[in-house]
Write a structure and sequence with these properties.
single chain, two-stranded antiparallel ribbon, Arc Repressor Mutant, subunit A, globular, alpha+beta
């Protein structure tokens, strides 16, 4: 549990915001090389994706994970993310912000 608290203390407001949006159902994807991520949005029925710089960091911290396990990741493809159990705990720990 102490490892989680050190990760929680390092979270920025932007990272907490992404965790909250992910918990509310917003879809986030990460590239196969884990360097780029995007928030999937639509505007008037058309895709209007937004770059999300916090998602790769949250992935490295173990707060988000891939929705489905993949054997071979392609760098040019994007894979859907979801909150991990650690992410839910971090969200509860930062509920006051």
């Amino acid at each position: 549990m102490s490892g989680l608290s050190s990760s929680v203390q390092k979270l920025t407001r932007a990272q907490i915001y992404v965790l909250r949006r992910m918990a509310s159902g917003t879809i986030y994807d990460i590239s196969g090389n884990f360097r780029r991520a995007r928030e999937r949005r639509t505007f008037m029925g058309n895709p209007d994706d937004v770059t999300c710089r916090s998602s790769p960091v949250l992935f490295r911290l173990g707060l988000v994970e891939l929705c489905q396990p993949v054997r071979h990741l392609e760098p040019g493809l994007y894979y859907r993310l979801k909150l991990s159990s650690s992410g839910h705990e971090a969200l509860k720990a930062n509920a006051h912000l």
